Amino acid sequence: MSLKRLLSEIEGGWVKAKNEKFTGHPIATLLRKDLILAIKSKLDLQSNYLIKASAGAGNWADVPWLSILNPAITESTQSGVYPVYLFCSDGSGVYLSLGFGTTDLKKQHGAAQARFKAKELRSNIRNSDLRLNRWDEKIDLRSTTSLGRSYEWASAGAKFYPLENMPDDSVLISDLTELLEIYADVHTGIQTPNREAIKQAHPLSKPFLLLAGISGTGKTRFIREQAKFTGSIEDTYCLTSVRPDWHEPSDILGYVSRLSGNTEYIVTDVLKFIVKAWIALEQAGIIFQGKEVTGEQIQQQQVKPFWLCLDEMNLAPIEQYFADYLSVLETREWEWQGENFTYKCDALLKSTVFETVSQDKLKQELGLDEHEELWQHFIANGIAIPFNLIVAGTVNMDETTHGFSRKVIDRALTFDFGEFFPNDFDAFFEPNSTPKALSYPVLTDGRDKAELSGTFDKDGALSLSFLKQINIILEHTPFKLAYRALNELLLAVITQSPQSEIELQSVLDDFLMCKVLPRIEGDIDKLTKGDSNQTILEQLSALLTSELSTIWDTNTRHDLFLKSLDDDPIIKIECRSKMKLEWMNAQLKHGFTSFWP
């Protein structure tokens, strides 16, 4: 289909479409798919250029757009400079503009100064390239929203194509080619995210971590430093101290209040941070379609992980105040088709909440005044768990805190912090290792044999056999493992991608430490089955002697979460589960044992 026809059909049908159902509408499809394909086919774009389009997020935007981004300048329509098609709100025509993002300008300089900075930026760009003298300085999109109107003063030059007199493809392509040539010469000095650091961060198999250990070992600092690896403390890190009197999900997500005489939603720092993570997805050009979000791998790779640190997480019962998150966490679904992905998740905060409260106040408190499309998405679908959110709780296991159930252990990656990230006094002044940078998972289904094929366990058979042997020992006990454990073991194999038997057994060893052994606790009666003279711990030790034979009695297993600062980054350590089982067995001789010190 020609560019002329596509631009005409989108703009000509826009006013009518805005009064019709959003999901699956053909006008939105023309913009998001057909127009992108047409531009790619008709122009010789640089391979690293990103093309993003938006018809709205859950509901219709007032001004739809399609942008072409050079990652060297910007990877987001919220900042930097980029060519963009802007469709007038009233259906009168289309602008091709050299636009620039206003969100970062407002963030850096405030709303009052943002327009002045935009005018300064426009003047600098136009003065640096005389070709823009043939392009108009002003835009009138006939918009009724603040976001739509902001596009009007965020332009360094534009050309208008009236709907009733849309030029032929030869003119449209010529104009776009010229603007792309101008764009290639633009130098704004605007910094872009460090995508390479994000790409190199190691994906976790689950976005919920429990860091357990004695006080003072650096659990909270570890989370803080993780945020600094790929982002910044100001933008991608939130510290929330858990209170002992928390018992309801409202303590962490907020609640409806009528005390002021009006129905208002009282927001929390946690909810604001979750919304902030969603804003990062919007800025990366991720598309919201109903309850799903879709995008390309190149977009996903620029999205930073957002670290929510729940400090002293078990001062209150986790199963109570964190119940909603624990349930919704298991509804996350990733689906990949080539380099394109779809992600969906149930809502933490239901859409019905928005129907009963003061929306203007809530919108402002959540920082969404400049994010109309995302706000409309929340109104229609609620606020789900964004895929770039990692929740990490610090846990002290002592008499002042609550233990946590197997329900929590099943849903989290539980780290005995002192075992995985030991405090080595001899290396206090001159560290010889550092934690690897971690990131959010991009898979939820461990049955993907195409992903497994690149690992030592090419079809998952070795992992399946291993877990079956473990479950034979745990049969008829409350410690038995189910499908979730198998899925997460396979996800761990995929994300760690072991290429040898030693590496695979290192993954299995850590899986035992994170998912299996923390479940086991009790006295001699609870840990001894009637058909055996050995305890469960003794049976596991005997089994693992053969199942982990390559690493059981040697210091050859690889540390998967620390890297050496020497030339060889691989650190070799003892088998963690062997040491832990020996310790738990020793504790059992005193009458009771558990995983925790």
From TrEMBL:
Q: Which domain of life is it from?
A: Bacteria
Database matches in InterPro entries = McrB_DNA-bd, P-loop_NTPase
Please report a single Pfam family linked to this protein. MrcB_N
- Type IV methyl-directed restriction enzyme EcoKMcrB subunit DNA-binding domain ranges (all copies): 13-187
| Name used for this protein in its record | DUF3578 domain-containing protein
- What organism is the protein native to? Parashewanella spongiae
